[in-house]
Every structure is written in C-alpha cells, then in structure tokens.
C-alpha cells in the first residue's frame, strides 16, 4: 500500500526460528526492485528463507495473471489442490509471449530504475504541509486524514493533471486516509514539483 520494503531477512530468520513458512508477494517489486528487476527476495539473496514467492503480471509487466515460485512439492500441491488454479482458464499464448518479452526487457532497464529512485528522492525532498511516509520506492504515500478531505485533495491533483487516487477508510485505518502516488520512469521532475505546489495550495484551502 505504501511502497515500503519489509525487513525480509529479519522476517525470514524469525520464520526459521519458529518453524513458520514465509510467503512473499513481489507484486510491486517485479521489474522495479533489484539490479535486474528481479524483486526483493533475490536482491536480498533470501531465496532459501522463502517457502513461496508470488510474482504478479498485472503491474510492471502490463499483462495479467501471476506465478508462484517454490519447491517441486509446493507446485504439485497447488496443481492438485488449488481450486482457483484448477478451475481457471490458462493464459492465452499472446499473454505468455508478452510476459516472456517483459522478462527479457527488465534486465536492461537500468536507466528507468535509476530514474524511479531519483523521482522518489525528489518527492521526499519536497516541503509538504502533510505528513509523508518515508520511502524510496516509486509508491509514495501522503497522509490526509478524513475521507472527504482526502477526496478533495485528490480531486485538486487530478484537475491539475496528476492521476493521484485517494485511499479511504476502511481500506486503511480511520484518520490515516492517504494519497497513494505512483511514480513512473516517464514522469518529469517538473511533475513532481507540480505535486508539491498543488498539495501546498490544498492545505491552505482545506
């Protein structure tokens, strides 16, 4: 939700100590985190700590579907007992081809991943009138308490040309309603500065 990275190695160590199985959802890390966009688990070299990893194809890959990575025993279990897999139509060949192509492109997108980190740093450097959660990922969160208030701020941003959506209670706890800002490699520094100006103006009017 907030673009923050979990302390994966520490969590993995706890799982190992207490006999728990660690499942990691790499939905927003796929293509973005790691030198080659391989995700957080490989970046942290924590494969041995994970029971399963889920990589979704609907975010950076621009497709749909997902894959579960794990042991041969896990794969056989899912094939035989996962009803949502058994009764789901297989991906069409065009989707499989798109996914394969995306994974071929990810390792070369070093410039784009660096650009995402630069934009996140630029956003973190803004002087904002709202509380902002710390993070260096492309997903940035700004707390604007109150459903009505966060809706108004989001509408002002949208009217200024920024496609920013409000996250409302009860999706998040009451009084922690927020703007969820998703940065893209094609965004400019000027657009980040626009976010800052509009947010500052909304604080004066709200």
Please give a structural write-up.
The chain is an alpha+beta fold and 206 residues long. The protein is built from 8 helices and 7 strands, in the order αβαββααααββαββα. The protein has a 4-stranded antiparallel β-sheet with strand order 4-5-7-6. It has a 3-stranded mixed β-sheet with strand order 1-2-3. Helix 7 (147-159) packs across helix 8 (189-205). The relative contact order is 0.12. The model has no long low-confidence stretch (mean pLDDT 95).
What is the gist of this entry?
By secondary structure, the protein is α+β, with helices and mostly antiparallel strands. Helix content is about 40%, strand content about 15%.
Please supply descriptive tags for the structure shown above.
42% helix, three-stranded mixed β-sheet, 206 residues, 14% strand, alpha+beta
SS-based class: alpha+beta
Using only C-alpha atoms, the radius of gyration works out to 19 Å
The DSSP helix count reads 8
Give the biggest sheet: 4 strands, antiparallel
Order of helices and strands: HEHEEHHHHEEHEEH
Overall geometric form: globular
Strand order of the largest sheet: 4-5-7-6
Number of DSSP strands?
Answer: 7
What fraction of the residues are assigned to beta strands by DSSP?
Answer: 5-15%
What is the helix content? 40-55%
Give the mean pLDDT: 95
Low-confidence blocks of residues: none
Kindly, what is the distance between the CA atoms of the first and last residues, rounded to a whole number of angstroms? 25 Å
